[in-house]
């Protein structure tokens, strides 16, 4: 489902009330320079007092007096001692609502609630609470209890490696505990026994664990685009622009791309996904950032790396960014991207690169390649040069993005971050471009993002930007599709249909011919992505699934000499489809590959059994992670 802009009229309404909106749009339309457009917008918002004057975070939270929080917690303790754990949880939760999340009072209430959850058998909730306060203002002399409880909960959940780490940290923290030497000795001995049992369990797990095969690009790595197969190349076409084409025949199941996101952020406010760009690991219990308490991490290493990339600068303003008009997660992702590269390069180099990009006319086929002819997904300019439609979007939308960029940079400067005034135009224009690149490639095209499954539905875990996968154009009948563990940040793309030499490799942007007629598909492609689709289903006006033929006849057999073989195999496939459950499709994957190759060369599409086989191959390629 596509995300919509929040508060789109926020800036325009204020200017309309001042009776200047029409003049503003005229000025924005005639200003060709992105830098001048940003600086004009900045001056405008300043003139009409539309920018914040302070970073007053207290207005976002309403807390009662700490004494009230303490009273609720004490009542929770009484229920806990009486083994009335549900009532205890209720009191601890009320205690949390009465105190700030960065206080000791909050940490004590969360820790106590986790103990109640443990006794209720809700080990995942217990662990989430513990991880949330381990780096917070919890009394050091009591910290050993947190880690022992975490280890016990992790063992119950089968997280043996983590349990062992928690027990080790518990023993380290035991030195700070306020208890007698004898009690320390007994406690230490009990924890050491639990840790030894973890070692035995880990030895057994390693002995019985099956290692999944490592995916390899068919033909090896592409010489110029390392995330693509050596069996493909970039070419230009009149209707679709730059695209990826096969230089040899590619078979179903062949790996054609292995890409990593350039930038990513958990989505929505996901407390079970690591916020560090290089991790994005899905876990049931992560550590909470002690400063903003709105980002979560696997460990301190991930947190420190994320701080180095700029999260420490986001902490003081994250509440303001979340309330900035637009789409909260796109704004967060844009700020994360900007800070990561601005801090890495420094203002002078950063502005030189973005200015040079905006002022240089670049060959469409080599856009995003570096000076030695490499297109790499970890390169700033590769990501920055992706399509953005910035020059094609309506004036009101373009102005809206400029206003968002002005707001976000203003919050940064209010927090003490310094951007030299001579670089402000370049920085602002770059942030507008980053927003528009993400709007197109991460908001509207987030189909390949890490995902999680719940019952029959799949939900994205993050907003991601895959520079190499973005090279694949759309088809309403994609011949490649994502593969592997769908919650992984590394995205593997495999062929799901035969792809003859010279054919373009296309993925699907969420607009499929089986579900929508040609008119609605073309409308969606235009509205969301600003292009017309020229795939076979659109050119030949294929019917939707309900009207696709499901029988062989003289009308759809391409090779009459193969009719008996094709007919026989179709009957086998129908029996297989009825007898095999979706979770077992992967066990029949080689048969599915051979069947779709048989149909591809001998039956005219669309054909219902072909579409069924295609869906089964897609199921077989994906390893779902369930909530």
What's this entry about, in short?
The protein has helices spanning 10-17, 21-30, 34-47, 66-81, 85-96, 104-119, 123-133, 143-156, 160-173, 181-208, 300-314, 318-323, 328-345, 347-359, 380-384, 395-414, 424-443, 518-529, 536-539, 563-579, 589-602, 608-621; strands spanning 232-237, 241-246, 255-259, 263-266, 287-288, 296-297, 451-454, 457-460, 462-465, 473-474, 480-485, 491-495, 504-507, 622-623. It has 627 residues and is of the alpha+beta class.
Task: Write structural notes for this entry.
With 627 residues, the chain is of the alpha+beta class. It is built from 22 helices and 14 strands. The protein has helices at 10-17, 21-30, 34-47, 66-81, 85-96, 104-119, 123-133, 143-156, 160-173, 181-208, 300-314, 318-323, 328-345, 347-359, 380-384, 395-414, 424-443, 518-529, 536-539, 563-579, 589-602, 608-621, and strands at 232-237, 241-246, 255-259, 263-266, 287-288, 296-297, 451-454, 457-460, 462-465, 473-474, 480-485, 491-495, 504-507, 622-623. Strands 1-2-13-10 form a 4-stranded mixed beta sheet, with no helix packed on it. A 4-stranded mixed beta sheet has the order 3-12-11-14. A two-stranded antiparallel ribbon has the order 4-9. A hairpin with a 3-residue loop joins strand 1 (232-237) and strand 2 (241-246). The two termini are 19 Å apart.
């Amino acid at each position: 489902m596509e995300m919509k802009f929040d508060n789109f009229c926020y800036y325009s309404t204020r200017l309309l009330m001042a009776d200047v909106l029409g003049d503003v749009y005229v000025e924005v339309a005639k200003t060709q320079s992105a830098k001048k457009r940003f600086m004009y917008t900045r001056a405008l918002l300043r003139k009409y007092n539309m920018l914040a004057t302070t970073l007053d975070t207290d207005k976002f939270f309403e807390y009662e007096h700490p004494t009230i929080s303490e009273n609720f917690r004490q009542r929770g303790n009484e229920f806990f001692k009486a083994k009335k754990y549900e009532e205890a949880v209720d009191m601890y939760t009320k205690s949390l609502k009465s105190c700030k999340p960065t206080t000791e009072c909050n940490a004590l209430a969360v820790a106590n609630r986790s103990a109640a959850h443990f006794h209720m058998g809700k080990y995942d909730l217990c662990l989430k609470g513990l991880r949330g306060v381990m780096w917070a203002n919890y009394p050091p002399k009591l910290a050993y209890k947190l880690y022992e409880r975490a280890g016990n909960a992790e063992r119950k959940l089968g997280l043996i490696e983590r349990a062992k780490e928690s027990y080790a940290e518990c023993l380290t923290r035991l030195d700070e505990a306020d208890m007698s030497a004898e009690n320390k000795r007994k406690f230490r001995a009990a924890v050491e026994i639990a840790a030894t049992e973890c070692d035995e369990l880990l030895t057994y797990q390693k002995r019985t664990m099956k290692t999944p095969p490592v995916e390899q690009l068919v033909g090896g790595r592409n010489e110029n685009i390392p995330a693509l197969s050596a069996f493909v190349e970039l070419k230009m076409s009149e209707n679709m622009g730059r695209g990826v084409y096969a230089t040899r025949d590619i078979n179903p199941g062949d790996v054609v791309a292995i890409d990593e996101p350039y930038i990513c952020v958990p989505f929505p406010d996901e407390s079970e996904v690591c916020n560090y760009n290089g991790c994005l690991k899905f876990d049931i219990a992560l550590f909470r950032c002690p400063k903003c308490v709105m980002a979560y991490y696997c460990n301190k290493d991930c947190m420190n790396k994320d701080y180095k990339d700029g999260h420490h600068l986001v902490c003081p303003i994250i509440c303001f960014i979340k309330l900035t008009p637009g789409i909260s997660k796109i704004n967060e992702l844009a700020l994360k991207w900007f800070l990561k590269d601005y801090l890495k390069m420094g203002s002078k180099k950063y502005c030189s690169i973005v200015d040079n990009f905006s002022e240089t006319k670049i060959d469409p086929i080599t856009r995003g390649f570096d000076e030695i002819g490499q297109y790499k997904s970890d390169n700033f300019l590769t990501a920055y040069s992706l399509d953005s439609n910035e020059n094609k979007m309506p004036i009101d939308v373009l102005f809206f993005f400029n206003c968002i960029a002005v707001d976000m940079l203003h919050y940064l400067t209010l927090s003490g971050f310094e951007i030299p005034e001579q670089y402000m135009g370049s920085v602002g224009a770059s942030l507008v471009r980053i927003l528009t690149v993400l709007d197109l490639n991460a908001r509207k095209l987030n189909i390949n993002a890490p995902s999680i499954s719940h019952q029959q539905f799949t939900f994205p875990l993050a907003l991601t930007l895959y520079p190499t996968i973005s090279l694949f154009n759309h088809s309403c009948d994609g011949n490649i599709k994502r593969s592997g563990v769908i919650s992984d940040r590394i995205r593997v793309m495999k062929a799901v249909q035969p792809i003859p030499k010279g054919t373009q490799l296309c993925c699907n942007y969420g607009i499929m011919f089986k579900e929508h007629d040609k008119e609605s598909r073309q409308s969606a492609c235009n509205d969301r992505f600003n292009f017309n689709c020229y795939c076979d289903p659109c050119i030949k006006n294929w019917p939707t699934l309900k009207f696709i033929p499901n029988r062989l006849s003289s009308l759809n057999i391409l090779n009459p000499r193969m009719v008996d073989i094709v007919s026989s195999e179709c009957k086998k496939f129908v029996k297989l489809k009825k007898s095999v459950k979706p979770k077992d499709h992967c066990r029949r994957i080689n048969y599915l590959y051979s069947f779709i190759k048989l149909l591809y060369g001998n039956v005219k599409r669309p054909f219902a059994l072909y579409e069924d086989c295609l869906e089964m191959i897609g199921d077989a390629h994906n390893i779902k992670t369930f909530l």
